[in-house]
Structures are given as structure tokens and as C-alpha cells.
Amino acid sequence: MVALLPMPIKNRDLAQKLLDELRQTNREVLNEVPWRVIQSVTCQQNPSAESVYYKVRCADCDFRLCKQDSAAWHEDCAEYSDPHHLERHVCFRSECPKKYLGDYVPPDKQHPRWDHNPYRTLSDANTKAANAEHSSLRVHRGFNVFQHIPCIVSDLPKPDLLHTMHIGMLDHLQKCILHFMKTHKRLDKYNAIWLSLPAYHDLLPKNKSYEEVSQWNGKEIKNICR
Asked: Where are the domains of the chain?
């Protein structure tokens, strides 16, 4: 990881006008950080093949000519909106209408992918009419670095262990296991084993069976994995 996006302070008690100005400032800051990091691989500068390479000291202590490349994107779905200048409940991958979000779409009827060209044009125009049209498309006005990266950001691998593995796959696996044990009447044995686990390092013994816990947070699910 080469950059960590700043976490804006939440000031919900402000007047609506000040709150809107603060949100606009936060979007500009969130846009400025990745822009400074990845500006050498954007289409804005139109770099030549030679200028994008620079010497980097590798793990074997030898220097090699390297260049930056967009290889991964570390975010969860809810946090895509602000960096991409999208309004809430807008799909960052395709121009899917809000009422169809979450519905299954067959492969041959996929929604059209985001085309950043018109948004770049409206942003560069920076007129009252262009800003109004920008807002009608559910995209906040202003320059956005992700509209200038020569790749589809949403298709990049997302190495997010908490949301992909722990809250995603592990939670899904646990639900399948619980359903299997209920069907075969083995859930009581599972709960007994769960409660009998001793403390180990920073893992504390459990005082509730697994099915008695109504809600798990990310840290608890990470401990389940351990």
C-alpha cells in the first residue's frame, strides 16, 4: 500500500449550507491524495514511454527501472461513493438505475459500464449548465482522478480481508455450516465445543453460544477465523 485515504471528521450538527461546503471540501481532499500518488500513470500528462520509468531499489538490493501501475483497489462498496464523486446508492461499476440495485442481471442483459468521457467533458467545461447536467447524472461536479486512470478501477482486485474474507466469505460459510448442523441435529454439540474453547493469548473464552450472538462486528469475526 502506498497511500491511505484520510478519514474526514463527521460534523452532522452543522447547518445544511456549511455541511454541504464541508462535504465538498472532503471530496476534494479525498481526490487530491490519490491524484498526487498516481498522476504519473494518468492520461492527463500524456507521458512518453521513457519518462514514466524510474529507478527503484528492489528487495535484492539491485536497482531496476520500474513504472507505476494500477494493480489493486483497497475499498469496500460503501466507501466507493466519495472517491468516485458519486452520490449515495449509485453503482460505481455500471449505470444501473437505483430501483434495480441488488437484482440479478443475466450476463446478456448487463447494464452499460460507466463511460467517464462525458463526465470529464462536463468537468472541464465548468459552466453552470455543465454543472447542472453533471448533478442530474448523480455525479458530483469537479475533477475526479478515477475518471482519468487508463483502466477500469472497479475491475481491479480488491485485497480487502475484512470485507471480502471475514465479513463476506467466512460469514457465508458459517451460515451454511449452521444450517447443515441444524438439519442433522448437531448444533448443540457445536455450541458445546464453542463454549469449551479456552483462552489463548488475546482470545478470550466465550460466554455465549455461537447462535446466541445476534450481531458480529469485524473484530469478532476475525477472532472466529483465528
From this structure: 16-44+64-111+145-155, 161-225
**Interacting residues of 223 by C-beta distance below 8 A, sequence separation 6+:** 203
Strand partners, 142: none
Q: What's the CA gap between 84 and 163, in Å, rounded? A: 19
Q: Is the pTM of this model over 0.70?
A: no
**HSE, side-chain direction, 13 A CA sphere, residue 217:** 1
Average pLDDT, the chain: 78
What is the phi-psi region of residue 185: left when phi exceeds 0, alpha when psi lies from -120 to 50, beta otherwise? left
Instruction: For residues 12 and 226, give the distance between their C-alpha atoms in angstroms, rounded to a whole number.
Output: 37
Q: What is the pLDDT of residue 186?
A: 93
Q: Could you give the CA distance from residue 178 to residue 190 in angstroms, rounded to a whole number?
A: 9
